[in-house]
Amino acid sequence: MTDWTLECSACPHTEPGTALATVCPACGQPYLVRYAEFPASRRALLDRWDMWRYAALLPLRDGEEPVSLGEGATPLLESRELARALGVRRLWIKDEGLNPTGSFKARGMSAAVTRAKAMGVPGLVVPTAGNAGAALAAYGAAAGVPVRVYAPESTPRGILATIRTLGAELITVAGHIGDAGAQARAFAAERGFFDVSTLREPYRIEGKKTMGIELAEQLGWRLPDVIVYPTGGGTGMIGMWKAFAELREMGWLDARSSLPRMVSAQADGCAPIVRAFAQHADRARPWENPTTHASGLRVPGPLGDRLILRALYESNGAAGAASESAIRHATARIGRTTGVDAAPEGGCALAVCEALVAAGNIASDAEVVLFNTGGGVGYRD
Ligand SMILES: *Cc1c(COP(=O)(O)O)cnc(C)c1O
Q1: Is there an atom of ligand 1 within 6 Å of 266 CB?
Q2: What's the gap between Cα 210 and its chain centre?
């Protein structure tokens, strides 16, 4: 029996894991899942090839079936050419574009919809820059639970078409994801649909954390020196950092493996985390007029700003932003040199990595993993 508690990430408030929880009622900050006990041995891994291989470390109770579409188990691809060109020892791309609906949002939604379904919610709602809506539409359909999605009009057309195809009700909104979020919350309050907005429920982080566990397993239970992660709402960054702490606590990591430096990559047109990191701040001020074609990074005021920044500081990490043209060039470069059809967010990770290596912030003997968080297909008209 997996048992867990929900702990506020900012104050002493806790709730039992059986609650249908949103954010901490005392301070409004996100909850984190704390497990009662961890399996002592890696033999607890299941013999299945999706993220539920790690069910022993996930919020799933005995006898429950996860809502799954084969998410996770994505390739970790080494590129000698990019390593040589950038000037680092080794470089891999973790290609999350191969997930259901073409992004790593599938991992978070698989975990969140599994819990929401177990709690018997009447419906699910999410504001999205695109990929979260597509993923929720897919997992809602798989679970047989109605879905409503609020997305900015500027969302890539291919992603909007996917949301409709998977049977969700799609509302397009003038403005950015913050505007979509306000409408989604109003709808949730009115109709009782459960809001699975980034960090407004505790389980998407748990799904995203499997990226970190999987990476460790693929590298033989050790971790790279540096992880460069395109950061929007920050669930992946927060989830992976949580995963590494749990792996270490369980003793599952190779004894010689140290924890990686975590690096946030953002776009010049929306870089609240990069600005806060440069100012050594522990909160990020919202970015005015966010603009970038890397739509997953267009998150002006992430609710998880404290947790993202904490991961960067605790890991002695870094943060950097890239211009729109640098993102375009780097995205095309990934495609040409590796065969990975990357989303612009993945291109942003490469552009920021290259700049940090050139600046001496990432060492020339470093082993680096870049996250390509989505596939390129949905971004083409
Ligand atoms: C949502 C999204 C991001 C940002 O993800 P967070 O983990 O919330 O920071 C990055 N890339 C793509 C393709 C996305 O869909």
Answers
A1: no
A2: 10
Residue 147 CA to ligand 1 centre (angstroms): 20
Q: Which residue has the tokens 């389980």?
A: 203
The response to whether residue 97 sits with its C-beta less than 6 Å from ligand 1 reads no
Residue 268 belongs to domain with CATH number: 3.40.50.1100
Question: What is the number of domains present in the chain?
Answer: 1
Q: What length does the chain have?
A: 381
Q: What is the mean pLDDT of the chain?
A: 95
**CB of 68 closer than 6 angstroms to any ligand 1 atom:** no
> Does the structure show a pLDDT above 90 at 165?
yes
What distance in Å separates the CA atoms of residue 103 and residue 204, rounded to the nearest whole number? Answer: 14
d(CA 94, CA 104): 10
Please state whether beta strands 4-8 and 14-16 pair in parallel, antiparallel, or not at all (unpaired): antiparallel
Q: What is the pTM of this model?
A: 0.96
What is the per-residue pLDDT across 306-317, written as a single tens digit (0 to 9) for each? Answer: 999 999 999 999
Q: pLDDT at residue 372 above 90?
A: yes
Does ligand 1 have an atom closer than 6 angstroms to the CB of 105? yes
Domain that holds residue 224: 76-100+206-379
